[in-house]
Amino acid sequence: MAKRLFEEEGHAKLYATYRPTYPKEIYEHIYTYYEDGLNAVSVESYTLAVDVACGSGQFSKPLCERFKQVIGYDVSEKQIKFATAAMSNVNNMSFKVGPGEDLSFLKDSSVDLGTIAQALHWLDLDKFYHEVERVMKKGGVFAAYGYGNDILDDDQANTAVKQVNNHAILY
After folding, report:
1. Whose C-alpha in 15, 30, 54, 57 is 20 to 30 A from the C-alpha of 67?
2. pTM of the predicted model, to two decimals?
């Protein structure tokens, strides 16, 4: 089944080796959006970030530069194996295995920043968004983003795709 594609060890190894990373500007854009929503940001505001569908953790690790605690979360044990090995020296990073629609390991209103990169299409969105709404703190941000390389033969459709690829939600 296609939904299980990223769970095989061989695929997870290729994914960890070849998946593109994101530019620093993506992180800065998300942080700016987060800070604008809080009005006054202090270091205490950057408490917990959760990267759902983290794969081998390419986006998770940079979050550790700002947040006291970062949790990478993925359905694939093999992906988490590679992520854990690659980031064993990062003290404020931990990983968990489970489906994105089940964030029961998180308390209500406990997350400052939730992220998901290039993976919304794998999830049951109603269940996932319900969990996101439950775990986000007031003033927190959920950011869903992708590579943004979709180009369609319709200007209106391209505008919609761009809005989806650059979408963040302030709670």
Report:
1. 15
2. 0.80
